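cron nightly-structures :: item 1 of 1
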Amino acid sequence: MRLDNTRTSGQARTRRGLALLIATGAGLGSLLLGTVPAQANDTTKTVAANGESITFATSDSSRGVNGSVTFVVKADGNWSIAGSGHNSHLLVRTFHWTCDLTWDAASVTHSTGKKAVPGKKTRSISSAAYDPAVQADFADIVARGRADCDIVIG
C-alpha cells in the first residue's frame, strides 16, 4: 500500500528536493556576495608644523552607523584615536573604530574600545596609548605613512 498518490518514487522526490535546496542556497549565496561593503572616505594626512605629530582624519559608515575619526601619531610614540558614531536605527548598536597604520613594509593596528549608541543618537569614543614601533619609525611614517580607519559595528 502506497502512502501517497504523487506517482513519483522516493528517489525522484529526493532528487527534486535536493535540486531545490541547491538552487535556494545558490540564490542566497549570490545575494550575500552581491552586497556592497561599507566604503570609507579618503583619509587626509596632516603633518604638524613642528613635525612632531601626524593627524589622519576620515569618516566612515557601516550598517546604519556613521561618524568621523581623527587618528594622531606623535614622534614620542604616543597615538590617539578620537571618533564619533551616529546610529540612524531605532535599536542600540555597538561600535568601535579601528585604524591600520602602514609604512614601507611595516604596519600596526590600533582601535578604541566598544561603545553602545542608542537609536537616533550620537556618541563619542576615544583611546590612546604608546607604541614603540611608531616612535622608532616616525620619520618613515611622516614620509610614507598611510592610515585606514574603519567604523566597526558589533
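cron nightly-structures :: done
The CA atoms of residues 42 and 112 lie 20 Å apart.
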